[in-house]
Amino acid sequence: MGSYMETLGSRAKTASREAGKLSTNEKNKGLLSVAEELLLEMEAILQENEKDVSEAEARGMKASLVDRLRLTEIRVQDMAEGLRQIAALDDPTGEVLSMKNRPNGLRIGKRRVPLGVVGIIYESRPNVTADAFGLCFKTGNAVILRGGSDAIHSNKAIVHAVKEGLRKAKLPQDLILLVEDTSRETVNEMMKLHGFIDVLIPRGGAGLIASVVQNSTVPVIETGTGNCHIYVDEGADLNMAVDIIENAKTQRMGVCNACESLVIHEHAAAQVIPMIVSRLKLHSVEIRGDETACALSGEIVPASEEDWGTEYLDAVISIKVVESLDAAIKHINTYNTGHSESIITESYANALRFQDEIDAAAVYVNASTRFTDGFEFGFGAEIGISTQKLHARGPMGLEALTTTKYIIFGSGQIRR
Amino acid sequence: MGSYMETLGSRAKTASREAGKLSTNEKNKGLLSVAEELLLEMEAILQENEKDVSEAEARGMKASLVDRLRLTEIRVQDMAEGLRQIAALDDPTGEVLSMKNRPNGLRIGKRRVPLGVVGIIYESRPNVTADAFGLCFKTGNAVILRGGSDAIHSNKAIVHAVKEGLRKAKLPQDLILLVEDTSRETVNEMMKLHGFIDVLIPRGGAGLIASVVQNSTVPVIETGTGNCHIYVDEGADLNMAVDIIENAKTQRMGVCNACESLVIHEHAAAQVIPMIVSRLKLHSVEIRGDETACALSGEIVPASEEDWGTEYLDAVISIKVVESLDAAIKHINTYNTGHSESIITESYANALRFQDEIDAAAVYVNASTRFTDGFEFGFGAEIGISTQKLHARGPMGLEALTTTKYIIFGSGQIRR
Asked: How many CB pairs (< 8 A) connect A and B?
């Protein structure tokens, strides 16, 4: 007999074999059934969520975190609507990406197939529970969910509704498995379930992600932190630059694709830095700059070395003045987290060099970094934004939850 | 100051930035220069290799392992020829795999780019040293090589020639870095070089691969073990079946795509098992079977439960008789290692079901499993065969050594 987690892993593996055989119609029917069931079980979900919320408040959880934890009628309706939208998306599995004949007559095709079992480790956002299930199920995977202990009552209630929706659609209920024991031991064991879990996706803060990367023997897709830069080139359209900077910094402050640092060519600095300062002051953004930047505005406070590498997720931004595009590229490649970087330029050559040489998931010319997002990229869904280089990089839609297998059609070929 | 391994990691990272900027012409020139230098330094390479070989023999290394370690004039010529062949391949980097316009006018493209720094951990095959360098360099990566201590003199001599070839082509010599300290501490540190090494590829036996998977915090591409099956369906062409089985088992015994286990439909068993036995006896293959198989031939010895999961890499094969295609699929999905599986059948429906439901990198109909190989698949190169599902699955050619980045062309877009 295996441990608690091994048993979950084995059940998920078995369910994943069934999931891989379902037609797109069957999967879509399941998603709609689950959406309906979430609404039917609304009252129970909100009651259980209230337990989590009052326990969190009693423990003195920060108001912004309590807000992420809290479900309302509208938020549950949004979960259901999210599943309906996933049902409406194209199913990426089954597609043959290429098929070629070899000289010996073998036909070798590469087909997109489900990953198998996906593990998600996340914090106290109960909406992730329904959303992650929907994306994994649509792509023919089983999912093992390990949410934060703060949200355990909410997650149990949501998973109950998902299982009931699956049952009504005559689908295996083990397609979703919740780790109900939220102890540190079970999460550590989950990260070692090599052979049962095909990929682990951590969703949450930098600490959670680092811990999964450090401890997991299961392959991990790192999502995450964004220390995103905007570089204002010599000769850039400065009004465009200021509009883009304002958007990238202030349209939503606490997200990974928000701009955290500006790099300014020294020939643009004297003109554009005062423009930036006055625009960002409208949003009460604190500005920390190097010596040159500070000399150009009394509103800028000195930046420390630590600032260059900091993802503020807050109303703070840093400014570095550089003497060349080379220096800008070097600075960004030194301090960025491989997420999203943008150049504001009118120069053809500089635009190409920036896109070639910056090492990041998304490299923009003359646009806000805030577009790095599965929906903005037109994927219709997003399981996270990968900041690593294996398997998936940048916003991950349904395709990131698939792998491929080679299918080979022969007529008796043997190797000589 | 960083440790020995951090210093290597940092040097490789710097070199990888340069590598990413090289044109295909520059890289090909570098490969040809290194090929030439290997021939120029032939004598030194063979002398240093002789030290490894005599030390290994003095320690009593098995003859087959000494043979893998030994270099000859022809083997060094083969290394040089391998690099010339890599130079002749298409460069996959730079290709834009898709480019679409979004409704707001953003043009979003997905471009294939180098991974950055590739780490290879391998055993005592000095030919891997030149080969891995060639594949990584062609794709614009820097490589850190950690070979076995048994081959350290050979590896140093080969790396000397590679660096000299790079120098003559005016290319950074840090594009190849050899871990000269082959202690356990340095390899453990190498597996933790998250942030410096973008991917680790272990090449070697099951023990080496398991150790890297267990201990690495750097993303790993697992290559490896193949417990490959051939299923003979009811109504199969039995002469074709026996020819394919003979080829898959005996054409080369010690390789990962060799067949290790047969699964036979009970309606075919009485006729085909004696045919298989007499054919495999020509190659002195020991046959271990379940009760039904043993009853059909006095030459078959009883198999234990352990046999079903064993990759023999030797003149041994197991036979399991099943009552249905379902039972065959279940048996294979239970015991296989996700490498290569084949069905011999005349049934359209069974061929499709086998390809759909078997969970492996390569699923064949009516062909030998021995074709799972980068060269046989037409990739012109192979860095290994991935038996895991993330990033790359099956034979890995040059593309497996690349990632993608999104390149976004805007004209002032901000997010609403």
From this structure: 194
HSE value, Cβ hemisphere, 13 Å, CA-based, for B229: 30
Closest of A333, A358, A342, A121 to residue B195, by C-alpha: A333
The overall average pLDDT reported for chain A is: 96
pLDDT for residue B204: 83
- Count of C-beta atoms within a 10 Å radius of residue B64: 9
Read off the pLDDT of residues A238-283 as tens digits, 9 standing for 90 and up.
Answer: 999 999 999 999 999 989 999 999 999 999 999 999 999 999 999 9
Q: How far B16 CA sits from the closest chain A CA (Å)?
A: 11
Q: Is residue B382 part of a domain?
A: no
Range with the poorest average pLDDT among A95-104, A218-227, A328-337, B159-168 = A218-227
The beta-carbon neighbor of A106 closest among B220, B360, B371 is B371
Between positions 336 and 395 of A, the ones with CB within 8 A of B are 355-357, 359-368, 370-372, 376-378, 388-391, 393-394
User: Does the model's ipTM exceed the 0.90 cut?
Assistant: yes
Q: Quote the pLDDT of residue A2.
A: 75
Q: What is the pLDDT of residues B165-195, one digit of tens each?
A: 999 999 999 999 999 999 989 999 999 998 8
The total domain count for chain A is 2
Backbone angles phi, psi at B117, to 5 degrees: -120, 125
**What confidence tens digit (pLDDT) does each residue in A180-233 have?**
999 989 999 999 998 899 999 998 888 888 899 899 999 999 887 899 999 999
Supply the DSSP string of A220-286, one letter for each residue: B--B----EEEEE-TT--HHHHHHHHHHHHHSSTTSTTSEEEEEEEHHHHHHHHHHHHHHHHTTT-E
Nearest of B217, B243, B209, B212 to residue B339 by alpha carbon: B209
Q: Do A376 and B221 touch (CB under 8 A)?
A: no
Asked if residue A1 has pLDDT above 90, the reply is no
CA distance B152 to chain A (A): 29
What angle, 0 to 180 degrees and rounded to 10, lies between the N-to-C axes of helices B238-250 and B266-281? 50
Interface of B with A in 108-137 (CB under 8 A): 108, 115-116
- pLDDT at position B268 over 60: yes
Same domain for A353 and A275: yes
Contact check, Cβ <8 Å, A363/B116: no
Cβ–Cβ gap B370/A415 under 8 Å:
yes
In the stretch 144-173 of chain A, residues with CB closer than 8 A to chain B read none
- Residue A245's nearest CA partner among A409, A153, A367 is A367
Residue B406 and residue A108: Cβ atoms within 8 Å?
A: no
Q: Could you tell me the CA-to-CA distances from B399 to A25, B60, B108, B195, B387 in Å, in that order?
A: 34, 40, 21, 22, 16
Domain housing B354: 228-371
> Searching chain B, which residue's CA lies closest to the CA of residue A105?
B367
Residue A379 has pLDDT above 60, yes or no: yes
Query: Residue B45 sits in a domain of what CATH number?
Result: 3.40.605.10
Among candidate residues B130, B141, B136, B43, the one with its CA nearest the CA of residue B80: B130
**Residue B416 lies inside a defined structural domain of this protein:** no
Are B169 and B252 within one domain? no
What tokens were used for A302? 């000195």
Q: Which tokens hold the place of B194?
A: 């998250």
Residues A135, A19 share a domain: yes
